[in-house]
Design goal:
By secondary structure, this protein is mainly alpha-helical. The protein has four helices and no strands. One of its GO terms (biological process) is DNA transposition.
Length: about 100
């Protein structure tokens, strides 16, 4: 089987189609004339790239999410401290 080189645009379109069309990856690969494993590797590479360098609009979403999670984390730390103190207090009360 000859080794075919696909353009970046073709690979990007194939990945976009696979992620948004609702069709099976096998059907998309067959329609495009590429192997299923090839399509999967393109999808995996795209996901890895997005993790390493997310698109600009996604970076804003991630910054907002990070801010929310930090706030939630601080609240959970405070609640844990309160529960630790309450546990210690009731342990002393119970031993009297």
């Amino acid at each position: 089987m000859p080794h075919t080189r696909f353009t970046r645009e073709f690979r990007d379109d194939a990945v976009r189609l696979a992620l948004t069309s609702g069709r099976s990856r096998r059907a998309i690969a067959e329609d495009l004339g590429v192997g299923l494993s090839t399509l999967r590797s393109w999808i995996d590479r795209r996901r890895e790239h997005e993790i390493d360098a997310p698109p600009e609009e996604r970076q804003e979403d991630m910054a907002t999410e990070l801010k929310r999670l930090r706030r939630e984390n601080e609240i959970l730390r405070q609640e844990r401290e309160i529960l630790k103190r309450a546990t210690a207090f009731f342990a002393k009360e119970g031993s009297r």
